[in-house]
């Protein structure tokens, strides 16, 4: 199984999207700063992920989420989630 994930920079709110076979390990690598792609964006937090059955599907989904429509999709999902939490409390 593969995962497509989205990290958010806690300082400026920007997103980073990637894919991996081991989500827990990859997020830990991002948070530790050992990866060049996010070492200058610390701290980061995992805000979204989804699973794919194979690497090709994960790569396609990552490409979509990095495009304009995919970025809008992620922002809307996060807004809906935060709205739902606010309504619960």
TrEMBL record:
It comes from the Bacteria. Gene3D superfamilies: GIY-YIG endonuclease. Residues 1-75 form the GIY-YIG domain. The keyword Hydrolase applies. One of its GO terms (molecular function) is endonuclease activity. Keywords: Endonuclease, Hydrolase, Nuclease. SUPFAM superfamilies: GIY-YIG endonuclease. PANTHER family: UPF0213 PROTEIN YHBQ (PTHR34477). Belongs to the UPF0213 family. This is Endonuclease containing a URI domain protein. It comes from Candidatus Scalindua rubra. The lineage of its organism: Bacteria, Pseudomonadati, Planctomycetota, Candidatus Brocadiia, Candidatus Brocadiales.
């Amino acid at each position: 199984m593969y995962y497509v994930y989205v990290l958010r920079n806690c300082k400026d709110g920007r997103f980073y999207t990637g894919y991996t076979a081991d989500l827990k390990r990859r997020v830990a690598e991002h948070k530790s700063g050992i990866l060049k792609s996010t070492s200058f964006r610390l701290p980061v937090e995992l805000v979204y992920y989804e699973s794919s059955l194979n690497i090709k599907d994960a790569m396609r989904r990552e490409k979509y989420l990095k495009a304009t429509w995919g970025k809008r999709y992620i922002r809307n999902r996060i807004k809906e989630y935060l709205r739902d939490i606010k309504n619960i409390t």
